[in-house]
Amino acid sequence: MNTSSVDVAKLPLMLANLRLPTFARLWSELTQRADREGWPSARLLATLCELEMAERVQRRIQRHLAEARLPAGKTLDSFDFAAVPMISKAHVMALAAGDAWLAKGGTILMFGPPGSGKTHLSAALGAALVEKGLRVLFTRTIDLVQKLQTARQELALTAAIDKLDKFDLLILDDLSYVHKDQAETSVLFELIAARYERRSIMITANRPFGAWDSLFPDKAMTIAAIDRLVHHATIFEMNVESFRRRTATEQRHSATVATSASDIDQRHRS
Ligand code: ADP
Ligand code: MG
Predict the structure, then answer these.
(1) Ligand 1 mutation target, pool 70, 74, 110, 119, most atoms within 8 A of CB
(2) What distance in Å separates the CA atoms of residue 25 and residue 186, rounded to the nearest whole number?
(3) What is the CA radius of gyration of the chain?
(4) pLDDT tens digits for range 210-232
(5) Count of CB atoms within 10 A of residue 84's CB?
(6) Mean pLDDT over residues 120-144, rounded?
(7) Considering the entire predicted model, what is its pTM?
């Protein structure tokens, strides 16, 4: 190749064409530095490649975070494990770090009354897994069931379920809120059966299995669904008082303490 005909001025255009945005942003600065410091050409090339690859990973994670539709601000860092003493932080951290349970299509089930932290913990786990490079979708169960029902009416249920295969983990929040009329079609069961032992599901519910009869068309299907879900499951029972109510009570309590303290202070002064 006759390199004397290479047009350096075309570099930005060529890098854009090759979809190398980090290269495009940094080549000028780095080539100057390499010239100044006398880097071997291979080092310059390797540096640019390394930066491009690292940013590519970051861009992918950002894309996956956006598509995951996780509720904002729910992280493991901001989750107070002391509030749910029955849950081992180490266990949750292991689930957030390891993908062995996802590789075999394992399930996580979270039960607890409203305000016990199910949405927070499930979203936080989801966010941690996206950071690890996995693909996650967080959805209210009723919304997803609604979408699958529409697909079913259009004879496209299988395609819709297949499309969800790109997600390593589906987080179905508030399973117990599925409407009675939604339970009459079997889309939820079809989804659970299709992902069984292949793709993971995480479910949160206010009510334990005993109250799941109203979620599926009949008892046999309820049993079949529960059977699949518990097979490779981690179950978290979060039987604690509502975090919302508790923090409200604590605030009221500390307000009372503060008032009485200032009362004493006042009396002292007068
Ligand atoms: P659930 O989904 O079980 O009804 P949420 O996860 O929505 O409960 O929790 C209610 C509120 O309390 C949310 O704002 C959540 O972030 C917060 N919360 C619940 N449990 C905890 C916890 N252990 N540590 C920190 N915040 C919590
Ligand atoms: Mg919730």
Answers:
(1) 119
(2) 52
(3) 26
(4) 888 889 999 999 999 999 999 99
(5) 22
(6) 97
(7) 0.85
Q: Is the CB of 241 under 6 A from ligand 1?
A: no
Q: Give the Å distance between the CA of 122 and the centre of ligand 2.
A: 9
Q: What are 39's two structure tokens?
A: 């880097």
Identify the H or E element spanning 107. Answer: strand 107-111
Ligand 1 pocket, mutate which of 116, 242, 243, 251 (most atoms under 8 A from CB): 243
Between CA 195 and CA 144 the distance in angstroms is 15
> 246: Cβ below 6 Å to ligand 1?
no
- Distance of alpha carbon 85 from the chain centroid: 23
Q: Is the CB of 80 under 6 A from ligand 1?
A: yes
Residue 253: which pLDDT band, with cuts at 50, 70 and 90? low
Kindly list the strands in the beta sheet with 200-205, ordered across the sheet, starting from the edge strand earlier in the chain: 136-140, 169-173, 200-205, 107-111, 233-237
Give distance in angstroms: CA of 220 to centre of ligand 2: 28
